[in-house]
Amino acid sequence: MRSFDLKKRTVIITGASGGFGSELTKLFIKKYGCRVIGIGRSKEKMNALSLSLGCDKNKFKYFLFDVSDKENWHKFAAMLESKGVIPDLLINNAGIMPPFERFDTEDEETAERVMNVNFMSVVYGCKAMLPLLKRSKQGGIVNIASSAAVSPIVGAAVYSASKGAVRNFSLSLSEELENSIYVGVVCPGFSKTDLFRDNGLNEDDFDFISTLGTDKDEIAEEIAEGVSCGKKLIVCGNDSRLMTAMSSVAPVRSNALYSKVMKGSDLNIFKDLK
Ligand SMILES: NC(=O)c1ccc[n+]([C@@H]2O[C@H](COP(=O)([O-])OP(=O)(O)OC[C@H]3O[C@@H](n4cnc5c(N)ncnc54)[C@H](OP(=O)(O)O)[C@@H]3O)[C@@H](O)[C@H]2O)c1
Question: Is residue 3 part of a domain?
Fold first, then answer.
């Protein structure tokens, strides 16, 4: 495991406008003196993030585009190249989670959208950025999967599949590129972010997630630490560590147990799955 020096690097972060992405942006700029190029769709959220950086806001630039469209990635790569920008690290973090629902009632368009935003965007981003990353003295890619990649979530079958795809794609790529580019994949557990904005969560649900999960700034710290150590698989949060440990011993049984706990909880989001 080779270490990855984060100091003063040029880092591209997708989904920088919210949740883990904005925490990573702040951390990389404030703690490691990085320059961050953020990608997202909300100008309002990007401007708020920029403002929150105070005197360091000149270290942050952002671009607004949909990461699930491969043309956008090629245009972005060409623009960086024309400006002579060589990124050192790409963090594919943007993702969506549709409302918890039984698969038999979920529509196919939602499933396609989830796969495109959560998985194909990672493929497109890696493909478009690799030629530039290879020109860096120390290039790297970090893809954000989820604990759902190891322990699938009931009521989120396609989301879990998209994260499993990100995990396996990344682990395969890390071996292919071992001698040139660092590739890491992150499996965070639950954290209270806007990811669940469309999930009809009530305050009690959010309290439950906060108790079970990890604060988003801690997740960002754990990601940075794992990347600095050059880890290929970074498991963040106690819930994710527990799920990973259980599934390595008994993958099917642990998933059944985990699903039972989720369905049996008072969580509003699982009431239709009982
Ligand atoms: N929170 C958790 O419990 C948890 C657990 C495990 C894994 N994760 C993963 O962590 C990553 C970050 O999630 P989060 O919790 O920080 O969620 P979040 O607060 O909702 O942030 C998601 C970010 O992705 C961006 N995004 C979504 N669709 C996009 C698109 N098509 N094109 C460009 N940007 C897009 C959003 O930007 P705009 O709003 O500007 O479009 C937003 O900045 C996701 O991949 C998620 O699956 C989260």
Answer: no
Structure tokens at 22: 């904005």
Domain that holds residue 27: 10-273
Atom of ligand 1 nearest to the CA of 190: 3
- Rounded to the nearest angstrom, the distance between the alpha carbon of 199 and the centre of ligand 1 is 14
Provide the CATH number for the domain around residue 247.
3.40.50.720
Q: What is the β-pairing status of strands 181-188 and 10-14? A: unpaired
Tokens standing for residue 190: 């639950």
Structural domains counted in the chain = 1
Per-residue model confidence as pLDDT tens digits over 6-54: 999 999 999 999 999 999 999 999 999 999 999 999 999 999 999 999 9
As a whole number of angstroms, the distance between CA 265 and CA 270 comes to 8
- pLDDT tens-digit readout, 244-272: 999 999 999 999 988 888 787 766 667 66
